Amino acid sequence: MTTMRANEPAATRTPGHLPLLVVLFIGSGCAALVYEIVWFQQLTLIIGSSAISMGVVLATFMGGMSIGSLALPRYVGTRIHPLRVYSSLEAGIGVLGIVIYFALPWVGGLYTAIGGPGFTGLLLRGLICAFFLLPPTLMMGATLPAIARWVEATPTGVSWLGFFYGGNTAGAVFGCLLAGFYLLRVHDMMTATFAAATINMAVAGLAFAFSKVTTYEAPAEEPRPEDNALPPGAWPVLITIGLSGMTALAAEAVWTRLLSLMLGATTYTFSLILAAFLTGIGLGSAVGSYIARSVRDPRAALGWCQVLLMVAIGWAAYCLTRSVPFWPINPYLASKPVFAFQIDFVRCLWTVTPAALLWGASFPLALAGVASREQDAGRLVGRVYFANTVGAIIGALFGSLLVIAWLGTQQAQRILVALAALAALSALVPVLSKSGELVLRARSVVATAAVLVIGVFMAWSVAPVPPILVAYGRYAATWMDSHGEFIYVGEGMNSSMAVSRLANGVLNYHNAGKVQASSEPQDMRLQRMLGHLTTLVPVHPEFVLVIGCGAGVTAGAVSVDPQVRNVTIAEIEPLVPRVVSKYFSAHNFSVVDNPKTTVRIDDARHYLLTTDRKFDAITSDPFDPWVKGAATLYTKEFFEVMREHLNPGGVVTVFVQLYEAGTPAVKSEIATFFDVFPNGVVFANTDNGQGYDVVLLGRNDDEPIDVDRIEARLTDPANAIVAQSLGEIGFYSAVDLFSTYAGDRTDLAPWLADAQINRDRNLRLQFLAGLGINTYEQDDMYRAMVSLRTWPDDLFTGSAEVMAPLRAALSW
Description:
alpha/beta, Growth Hormone, Chain: A, 8-stranded mixed sheet, 4-stranded antiparallel sheet, elongated, disordered N terminus
């Protein structure tokens, strides 16, 4: 048994045991990141995946950690063995992790019954996040201050605190990759939660066992208030580390936006970006901890670290706008997804590592900058961690919610340089005199001049986001010579978008780093086909919901039907309706400005869950399923919500792309839809006779589609604009439209035998689609479906004059 004497430096009492604590913090960090990913995913299903919703979740998560770091040293005395406190915290996190997993869906039902848009809805989102996230995050934030009491606030002791922080971050890297690439991809959120809880319990058990073989001699009395007063010169250090946290999280938000354009906004990309960021922070923390042991003036070292950060932020801006997007890489050439992941991870590391290393090094240097032997090490860590985390909360909120949407990524990165300059000045300019006062000396003037010169140069060097990156994302380098003219580029709160015009006059609407809609014949055919099927199949299509505005062509096709009285468009990005109303009005019948149209800026899932309105038809044309968050609009549970919001005789139509998705992902979408709509059918859109994309159609009744009724509507002069719209895409009759039939549930059963159902608890589609993002199997899938197609006896009804040619068209 090791005996610890109060008059010995803690770091020298048990040198062999401290590395074991690093191992425990690795496990703790791993579990924390798994929980973070699972909780974010669960809350997204309840409160939506908009930037506002995720900002609320992030602020609550980090706010709990900051409060916990400050509160534990105040309310938990120094008499209790630090390892037992740490053990209790880890066990509590594990228990709460399991409780939250099972309780969130139940409370989610309560929220959706009373939640809604506007300030009240935002307040409720914050309350539900706080109710669930604060208890475990308070404990997470308290773990480092708790274990800090195992060491003293000496240079050597503080360096060990930095190693603990670095170990925690290293564990977070592993947890991020474990959750993103295995636990959630192969299993589901419940498995991931229990895996994280198991890690917590193992860490708690080891910490408790370790406390049994060591003796902790607590101080003779609790620290007095004057003993815990901030040492002279501490405020500049706390301001510096707060600004450092602010720049770190704001930069993560900005760089994630740009990197997700470059790599494709899949769930795997977000895991790689976060892993690269955390890798740099963990390594930097280790380096900073080593420096903190021997550096004479840790506060000056912290200041020069911020000076280097200005250069590192400039480096990242250069990589993201002038270099890495133009590396000669064609993702299509990757024979397996793992090869694409490898090069993507290298690009992330190349871009963010310099800055992440410096952010990681800042924390142990800040600890050393305010440490004094008389202090309670727990309070020391709590204060520094609190300042760093509060800055991080502000940076995350302003970076993700406001700065990008208001000013764009170029100005956002210039602001980051300015904040790093302020952090450097805070640490370097005030000099601590022998009397303990902050004074200004000659070296302060030199430091100020150096910071200003470097800051101005680095801010000036930041370039705007390249339009071709916004437009073509991961394929930017391959489109350098054929992208046409960019007539609009904008960065919104949730996404970046562009509009381009080709030499032949074709307009392209770009979002998420690819063409989402265009005036190309094959795209116009799909978009209008989707809209017109939505209003022609139901007998009384008076109230229609359109999920996803896009270029507005689908919504426009819905709006021109004379029977439609109201069109509600649920769009997550406020910038989209304004852009498409200006550039695509000739193709979308000016739908945004139509008096029939109501635009709801909200996540479509959140809107449907919180509205009591019902519709005669709902059509869904959201982002590609590989875009993180989009898979929530393709789950079995969401399709059930759509069905519940239909009036009798109502219809649901859903766009499913066959390209850039992969066969397993498309099978998942179709099989999940059929699971909710057993009478669902598939209509295909081809391009030069080859498969391109499809429309799923489901009804809440089993009445056959009356082809005569629809033909009569198309020949009625009152519906001339509908007939004209269909004629412009090659459909001159109802028979032409329904000749695109590609199969139903019975026909496609053999092909869908191995399909995985996309559910809320697993969001399987986002992982399947993310693996198929660079595949082009659309024609193979189309041929496989139509090869199984048989004549649908119960689907269509009509006179012999329309049924004979329809049967003939479907006979091949």
